[in-house]
């Protein structure tokens, strides 16, 4: 570094004394210094040493005195170079360079405009009027941009200011230019994905095109870039099996070479969540060795990764917590919130650290204008009461919050209410007033909403009791008011939301169906899953039901090989619930190649998604075996189901115990009814009884294999898992009696959901007559006596 500073010394002397050196040589010296730093690892960079050197200060003064003489290219290049060397935005040189650039901005070529936009982003000026002017210029000159690198940089820079129209135009231009770009340059598509992340917009065709380029470059990608790409995908909730498997393999290869804190942290964050237990243990051991060398940001990243994998490595947690504790003064408020959340969810026991974190958060909160994230974390901490200043601060800014933020605050308030004993004796407490404010702001926001797309973005993660009790009805009114805004771009979002809240709305679903049928060729094939989900799960047939399913099946069938395996399983299961079994789809899923790829992918998914996908595959296998024997798909989940039931510890509700007792009385003895019976293909029915051809109850020779503890816990006799059933006399029938609680019905109506109907179909195929007891009938005013309940059961069973 000192050698390079000496090498510019003679040049500086000639510049200062008016020699023959050109202005470009100032830029050359800056570029020399920056290139030297850029090519070194972060930990070996000496930018601070360079900035404090006398010759660098001379170079800085020289540049400031020559601004008027610089041409447009040199002006921006020098600004860019000084910022790369960590010059402060408030430095007079930086401010003068920016001011001069603003005066010339309309004549900049796109390359200089792009670099200038990057410089403004570096100075956190992405919302400034100057960036607004750049956004306007981009909008005007977009068709003239033929360099994908320039476009990608501009996309990121203006991302916070783009309109929906400019967003679509940028994506279209990016997709066009990607086809002319050198496929070995993965930085360009990475920036385009970053643009999508910044605007929180999933454009699958562009994502898939970028993903193809990433896959081509896997052998050359390092841990840092792989970590960045995986992080962007996670933010966008974009899962691509091929990339995850390739990235996992490449990251595993890089373990031995990622030995410095910077690269190892990136590798740990990216690989640990999808690594095998053996690799994960190896990573944790290395992290333990490097922990003391981690800086504040690296310790935070490792802590969040440990929370994601639910690590139980106490030694490593203690090390990371120690690094965090000595660097607490370096963290921003949001980072302290992230630390608190990670350690809390890890169930890390350190009351002193949590008390310190809580005090820091409260101080931040007292001055924050964005309290929703901090209140959510504060609500997790054990604390009997909350300071008045915090509640007052939340109350002061709550009217600025959107629905998602209001929902987050509602979670915090609910926790405070549960923790604060004084609440029980003060019905007019500060919490009640705050909840009333939340309710008012939520209703006002819904009533004044006028754009469906923005509303759906706010509703994406909204859930919980407060929303369901206070805002759900108003939300449905608002959505129906905007019914004319439903189009092919927002159909999947709206359909997924309706399914998530378990709410049946025929007007909205009819509109979704008609838009889908008309514009199915515009809807991405993978989004047919979200689009069909509420129709199958909520068991609703719109007027165009046949056209809807046919259109979606025809849309996705040519692309079966492009689906992520787990998504294809979920799609096929949702179709099976609705009694649709496309042969080509079924044959693909139950092929050896597909199942092998699915197994590989499941290793990279979260535990929750892994278990859900395995369960859905079993249920799909059962449905196909029962309903489509002509496909000749074997039933291969016997052992899986046995393991599932042995692991489970079911419980019997008081209502089920009540029905069991009453059935014994109705049927003439408790030996005439069995409880929690396994059927072939491993359905568990609440109660089973047998009737002869004259509808007389038959007793069971073997007693029930089910034992129930005093607390209602079920203890299974594992010999009952062999699906052995006694033969029925001629003309006799088995009756399956199922109590259907609220989960089997839509929340806003007594309409039965699709899974309950599929279960009924399957039990009937297995030879049962199915009696279903809806919870709202059993708990109704008409059935409030023992005699009424028994008469109800008699009508159901002996009809």
Helix content: 55-70%
> Radius of gyration over alpha carbons?
32 Å
The fraction of residues assigned to DSSP E strands is under 5%
Low-confidence stretches: 1-23, 716-720
Chain-averaged pLDDT: 88
Shape: globular
How many DSSP-defined strands? 7
End-to-end Cα distance, whole Å, is: 93 Å
Helical element count?
A: 40
User: What characterizes the major β-sheet?
Assistant: 5 strands, mixed
Structural class: mainly alpha
Keywords: Kinase, Mitochondrion, Transferase
InterPro entries: FAST_2, FAST_kinase, FAST_Leu-rich, RAP
Subcellular location: Mitochondrion
Protein name: FAST kinase domain-containing protein 1, mitochondrial isoform X2
Write the layout of secondary structure elements.
Elements: H1 2-7, H2 9-16, H3 24-38, H4 47-51, H5 54-65, H6 72-84, H7 92-104, H8 110-122, H9 129-141, H10 148-157, H11 164-178, H12 187-199, H13 204-216, H14 223-236, H15 241-253, H16 261-271, H17 277-290, H18 296-308, H19 314-326, H20 333-345, H21 351-365, H22 372-378, H23 388-397, H24 403-419, H25 430-448, H26 452-459, H27 465-481, H28 491-500, H29 506-519, H30 528-537, H31 545-556, H32 565-577, H33 583-589, H34 592-602, H35 607-627, H36 638-647, H37 654-667, E1 674-678, E2 684-691, E3 697-698, E4 706-708, E5 714-716, E6 733-740, H38 754-765, E7 768-774, H39 775-778, H40 786-797
Parallel strand pairs: 6-7
Antiparallel strand pairs: 1-2, 2-3, 2-6, 4-5
Helix pairs in contact: 2-5, 3-6, 5-7, 6-7, 6-8, 8-10, 10-11, 10-12, 11-13, 12-13, 12-14, 14-16, 16-17, 16-18, 17-19, 18-19, 18-20, 20-21, 20-22, 22-24, 23-25, 24-25, 25-27, 28-30, 29-31, 30-32, 32-35, 37-40
